[in-house]
Amino acid sequence: MSVERILDARLRDRVVSAEHAAALIQPGETVAMSGFTGSGYPKAVPMALARQIEQAHQQGQPFQIKLLTGASTAPELDGALAKADGIAMRMPFQSDPDARKRINDGMLDYIDIHLSHVAQHVWFGLYGQIDTAVIEVSAIREDGALVPSTSVGNNKTWLDLARKVIIEVNDWQPAGVDGMHDIYYGTALPPQRRPIPLVQGNDRIGETALRCDPDKIVAVVRTHGPDRNSPFTPIDATSEQIAGHLIAFLQHEVARGRLPANLLPLQSGVGNIPNAVLAGLAKSGLRGLSAFTEVIQDGMLELLKSGVLDYASCTGFALSPDANEEFKRNIDFYRRRIIMRTQEISNHPELVRRLGCIGMNGMIETDLYGNVNSTHVMGSRIMNGIGGSGDFARNGFLSTFLSPSTAKNGTISSIVPMVSHVDHTEHDVSIIVTEQGLADLRGLPPRARARAVIDHCAHPDFRDLLDDYFQRACRDSYGKHTPHLLPEALSWHQRWLDTGSMKP
Amino acid sequence: MSVERILDARLRDRVVSAEHAAALIQPGETVAMSGFTGSGYPKAVPMALARQIEQAHQQGQPFQIKLLTGASTAPELDGALAKADGIAMRMPFQSDPDARKRINDGMLDYIDIHLSHVAQHVWFGLYGQIDTAVIEVSAIREDGALVPSTSVGNNKTWLDLARKVIIEVNDWQPAGVDGMHDIYYGTALPPQRRPIPLVQGNDRIGETALRCDPDKIVAVVRTHGPDRNSPFTPIDATSEQIAGHLIAFLQHEVARGRLPANLLPLQSGVGNIPNAVLAGLAKSGLRGLSAFTEVIQDGMLELLKSGVLDYASCTGFALSPDANEEFKRNIDFYRRRIIMRTQEISNHPELVRRLGCIGMNGMIETDLYGNVNSTHVMGSRIMNGIGGSGDFARNGFLSTFLSPSTAKNGTISSIVPMVSHVDHTEHDVSIIVTEQGLADLRGLPPRARARAVIDHCAHPDFRDLLDDYFQRACRDSYGKHTPHLLPEALSWHQRWLDTGSMKP
User: Fold this and answer.
1) Is the pTM of this model over 0.90?
2) N or C: which terminus of chain B carries fewer CB neighbours within 10 A?
3) What are the Acetyl-CoA hydrolase/transferase C-terminal domain coordinates in residue numbering (chains A, B) (predicted)?
C-alpha cells in the first residue's frame, strides 16, 4: 500500500478524476502548467484536457488555450495538446516534435524568451490573467503546503497568480524529495526589489514547499506516472572530442591562475555533448566542483556520487530510467547535495554574475565573428528555443558554445559566414568549441575572432570556403571592422535549402 | 589666484610637464585612461604622447599603444592618438571620426563590449597587464585620496591594476564636485562576490574619492581645460514626435497600473532624441522621477532644476557649454541630487534588474522581428559601439529603442527585413519607436511583432515594401515561425551600397 500523500484533509476532500479537473478549464483560458525539461509536469490533466478539446472540435466548437510552463514537457502535455490543436500560444520553451511542426507551419504562436524573464514578465502583466494553474507535486503537507516534485520551474509564480489551481499529486515521485527544494519568497516588482541573499550556489534562502491559498485549489488529482524517459545514449566520439577540448582549456585556465582549482559553478545544457563534458570532468582529476544550473542529467548524478561535484543547484531533472532508479534509491544522499529552486532564481542574472558561472551550451551555428544562433534552422525554422542559454552567456564568467562542426551528414557547416539568426551576439560569446578544436574569442577584435574560429573550429570540408569568404570580405567589404559580403553572407543557407548541401 | 588642488605634499613634489609625463609611456604599453562621453578625460598627456608618437614615427620607429578608457573621449585623446597612428587596439567604446575611419579601414583593432563587462574582463586578465593609467581628477586630498572630476568610468579599476599612474589635476573642473562621487570598493572576483547593497538608485554605498597607492604615482600634471564641448542642438520635429510617442506610452502604462506614477529609474542614451524625451518629460506632468543612467546631459540638469527629477545616478556628463556653466554655478544644488559611480555599478546587471530601469537607447536599424542593430552601418562598418545599451536592454524593466524611421535623406529605412548586424536580439527588445509611432512587442510572437513594427514604425515610403516582403516570407519561407526569404533578407542594404538608396 502506498502511503497517503495528501495530508491536508480539506484538500483530500477535493480529489477528483483528471477528466473532472480538466473540465474546469474553459476555451480561451491562459493555463500555466508545471514542468521543466520533461520533469515534474502534470501527467493526467493535460491528456484529459486534450481529449475534451478533441471532442469539442469534433462538435465544431473552437477550443484552444494559451499554455505557459517552466520549459519543455513531454508527449503527454505538449504533444497531446498540440496534436489536439489545443494550443493557440505557447511560452517560453518547448521541444516537442508535434508542437514544433505546428509552430513552423505557422499554426501555433510561440514566444521564445529568456527563462529568467518568464516569471517577471508574467508579473508585469504581459500575458494577462493566469486563469488556471495545473501543478504536479509530490505531496501535500498537513498545513496545505505543496511539496514540489522533480521540477520547480515557475510553479511559485503560477500558484501566486492563477485564479484557480489544479494540483496533481504524483506518488510515483519519491517521497524523499521533500526537503530538496528551496523556494525563494523574496522576489518583488520594482521598485520594491531587494538583493537576493545568495552568495554560494548551495545557500538556502527559501522554504522547502510551495504556498498556495487553499481556497483557490479547485481540484486535486492523484497520479502515478514516471517523468519523461530520457534514454541514455552512449557518448559518441565527436562529443568526447568536444568535451576534451573544453576540459583541457579549463585546466589550462586553472594553471594560468585565471580559474580556481575547483573551477566556478558549472551550468550545463542537456544532451550528448554536455553528458560527455560531465563524463570528462569525472576523469579530469578536478575536485570540489559545483553546479549552478537549470537541469541535472545523468552525468551530474554520477559526479555527485563520485564526490567530484560537491553540490548541484537546479530547477529540474532530465534523467534516464536507470539514473532515475539510482536517484530514488539514494534519495537521502542526493537530498543533501541537490537544491531545487524556482527558475527565476536558477537563472537570475544577479546570481549568475555573482557566482561567476561557467556556461556550457549547445548551438546550431556560429558565424566568423562569434555571433551564435541557438534556435533557428536556416533562419526561419525554430528548433527548440533559447531557454536559459542567454542568462548564462551574458552574465557568467565564461560563455562557451559547443557543437559538432557539421550537421546532417556533413551537409551543414556549424561555422558559417553570417548566422541566419542571432540569439547570442558577439558581445556575449567567449568560447567556441567543435570536435576540431577550441577558439578563445575573449579580448579579440572581430577579424582576429574570425581567424580563430576558422582555424580552430571549422571542419576541413568548409575551412577553405570560409577562409576564401573572409579574405574577400577583408578586401571588398564596405567596412573593414566586421568584414562581410552581403550578397553572399547567407548564401550557404540558401544553397542548403536549394541543393541539400552548403557545399558549392 | 586659483586655490591649490594638490593637498598631498608627496604628490605635489611629483608635478611635471605633460611632455615629461607622456615620456614615461613606452611603445607597446597597455594604457588605461579616464574619460566617459567626453567628460573627465585627461587633457594634456594624450596630446603630448601623440606628439612623441609622431616624432618616433618620423624617425622610423614603431610606437603604438593599446588604449582602454571608460567610453568615448574627445579630439584631444582619441582624435590625437588616432591621427598619430598611435593606437594598435582600442576598447571599449569610441565615437571619434578619425578613430572610426581607421577602424573601418582595417587599420585599428577595436573591441566593442558591454560597458558593464569592461572592468571585470580586465580583472579576469583578458587584456593583460595595465602598464600605465592616466587619470584626470579634480583634486588630491591631503591623504592622497583622488577626487574624480566629471566622469568615473573605470578609473577605480585602472588605478587598482596599473603598474604606474599618471594623474592630471584639472582645476577647470569645479572644486564643488567633491562629495558627488560614490566609489564602491566591494567588487571582487568570483567566488568572492557578494550582493551589491544598493536598493534605491540614490543609495550611497561607497566612498567619495578614489584610492591609489602613492608609490605607483609616477607623475602629476596640472591642467586647466574644459571637457569636450557638446553644442546643444535645438530639438527637431522628428525627435519631438518620437519623444511624444514614448511619453504617451509611459503615461498609458501608468494609467493601466503597470508602472508607478513616478515611473521607474530612467536610463537615457545621449543625443537629440533623448534630449527631446527629457524635454517632453519636463512638460508631461509626471513628478518624482529618477534616473539611474550612464550620462547626464542638458535635459537632465533641467529636469533636476525644475524638480521633475528627484535625483540622477550616472558615471559621466555630456553637457553643452551653457549647461556646464549652469552646473558649475549651482554645484551645491546638483551635488545633493547627482551621484557619480563607477561604470561597473552604473551599468551593473544586478542593479539594472533590481531597480527595474527604463532603458531608452538609439539604434541604427531594427528588423521586422525586433532584432536591433546599434553599431554597424550596412553590417560591416562600425559607427560607435554598443556602449551600455545592452546592459539596460537585457536587464531593465523596459527596453525601448528610438530612431527616426529613415536616415540619409530618406534613402535608408531604419526598419529592414533583416538587420545586417545584431546587437540586441528579439529576446531583449520590447518597444520600438519612430516618428511614425510605437510598436509594443512585449508578449508577442514573431509574426505579430512584424505586423506591429510595419504598421506602427515604418516610414510610408517603405511600408508597402516591408509588407510585401513579409507577406511573401509568410508564404514561401522554409519555416513560418520567423519567416524570411534569405536571398532578399539583406538585399536592401546591398541596394543602398550599389545605388545609394534602399528603394528599388
Assistant:
1) yes
2) N
3) 326-469
